């Protein structure tokens, strides 16, 4: 497995699989923040300390496999171009923060892209693991096993009272962020999502965009995750998040039913106009493409569109991002040039499917 493979395939292998409630929940993610006990955390560590961590993890884990997660590829951030970094962010294989770091930062990625271990981001180690659909408990159990595997060779910074110690105080305790990526077009169309967000925040959860903290929710895709890591077990956090997500699923299903009953023709028109835009546009901006893809995804889920699969939309969601477009073109593009190429790639992909 090489960097070229991660760059050229728009859709990760695990994303081709269906999971529970995958018409609404695209993915479940567990992220664990960990630090070495005997080395200063990245916010105060010097380059020599961080380079020691990077070299140790590369030496101990590069090309190893753990259960279904085969052949971890070690990727140095300093060796990547700005476009390559952007592509890995767009595929959620590294975080935007890691992409900004140079020098000692790196990532280890399994060949199925389901697991990535980020090195010297905000913490020494950040383990993230994805599953399709709503599978938080399964993802947590696998993350625990992967964490134990790493801990066999790493002495973690841990306090008996406070739990795992992290650079950011909000991560102290479990060091865990659990999140789900949800497609909520009906709640967005009916404006219900705006009323629900404050209530979700009051429950110790946060609603963000597709790339997490600081990102905008485009294409009706929302990331729901926990804010509290101290004073609760990992299982408690998962239970709270699962409960809220299941309520959102129920609300979204009811909103979709009401839209079909009360505005069926208008909804079908919106869906087919979006499909037409994707099939025939010669210029399309990223936000418009995301909204059209959202509407078409809704059409597939409602059975209105029958000759397309969600996998095509998952692929196009990544393929039409700025980094991927420039990687495809093998050069830096202006915003206008990206809008033209985005429209071309969407047309060609849909024609290939037909």
From TrEMBL:
InterPro entries on file: Arg_Kinase, ATP-guanido_PTrfase, ATP-guanido_PTrfase_AS, ATP-guanido_PTrfase_cat, Gln_synth/guanido_kin_cat_dom
SUPFAM superfamilies recorded: Glutamine synthetase/guanido kinase (SSF55931)
Catalysis: reaction(s): L-arginyl-[protein] + ATP = N(omega)-phospho-L-arginyl-[protein] + ADP + H(+)
EC number: 2.7.14.1
Gene Ontology BP annotations: phosphocreatine biosynthetic process
PROSITE patterns (alphabetical): PHOSPHAGEN_KINASE, PHOSPHAGEN_KINASE_C
Segments forming domain Phosphagen kinase C-terminal: 24-255
Stated regulation of activity: Appears to be allosterically activated by the binding of pArg-containing polypeptides to the pArg-binding pocket localized in the C-terminal domain of McsB.
GO MF annotation: an example: protein arginine kinase activity
Family affiliation: Belongs to the ATP:guanido phosphotransferase family.
HAMAP family: Prot_Arg_kinase
Protein name: Protein-arginine kinase
Organism expressing this protein natively: Ornithinibacillus halophilus
């Amino acid at each position: 497995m090489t960097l070229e493979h991660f760059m050229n395939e728009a859709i990760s292998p695990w994303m081709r699989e269906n999971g529970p409630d995958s018409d609404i929940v695209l993915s479940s993610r567990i992220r664990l923040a960990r630090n070495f006990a005997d080395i200063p955390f990245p916010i105060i560590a010097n380059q020599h300390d961080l380079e020691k961590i990077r070299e140790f993890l590369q030496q101990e884990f590069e090309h190893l496999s753990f259960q279904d997660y085969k052949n971890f590829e070690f990727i140095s951030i300093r060796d990547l171009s700005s476009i390559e970094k952007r592509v890995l962010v767009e595929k959620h294989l590294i975080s935007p923060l890691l992409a900004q770091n140079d020098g000692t930062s790196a990532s280890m990625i399994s060949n199925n892209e389901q697991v990535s271990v980020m090195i010297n981001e905000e913490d020494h180690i950040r383990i993230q693991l994805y599953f399709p659909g709503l599978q938080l408990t399964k993802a947590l159990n696998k993350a625990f096993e992967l964490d134990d595997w790493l801990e066999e060779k790493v002495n973690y910074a841990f306090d008996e009272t406070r739990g795992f110690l992290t650079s950011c105080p909000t991560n102290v305790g479990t060091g865990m962020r659990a999140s789900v990526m949800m497609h909520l077009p009906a709640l967005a169309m009916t404006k219900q999502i705006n009323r629900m967000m404050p209530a979700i925040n009051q429950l110790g959860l946060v609603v963000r965009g597709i790339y997490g903290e600081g990102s905008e929710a485009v294409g009706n895709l929302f990331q729901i995750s926990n804010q509290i890591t101290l004073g609760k077990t990992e299982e408690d956090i998962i239970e709270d998040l699962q409960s809220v997500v299941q309520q959102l699923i129920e609300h979204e299903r009811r909103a979709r039913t009401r839209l079909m009953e009360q505005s069926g023709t208008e909804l079908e028109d919106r869906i087919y106009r979006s499909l037409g835009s994707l099939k025939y546009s010669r210029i399309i901006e990223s936000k418009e493409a995301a909204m059209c893809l959202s509407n078409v995804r809704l059409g597939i889920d409602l059975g209105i569109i029958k000759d397309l699969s969600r996998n095509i939309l998952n692929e196009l969601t990544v393929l039409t991002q700025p980094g991927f477009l420039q990687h495809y073109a093998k050069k830096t593009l202006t915003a206008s040039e990206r809008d033209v190429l985005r429209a071309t790639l969407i047309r060609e992909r849909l024609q290939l499917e037909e």
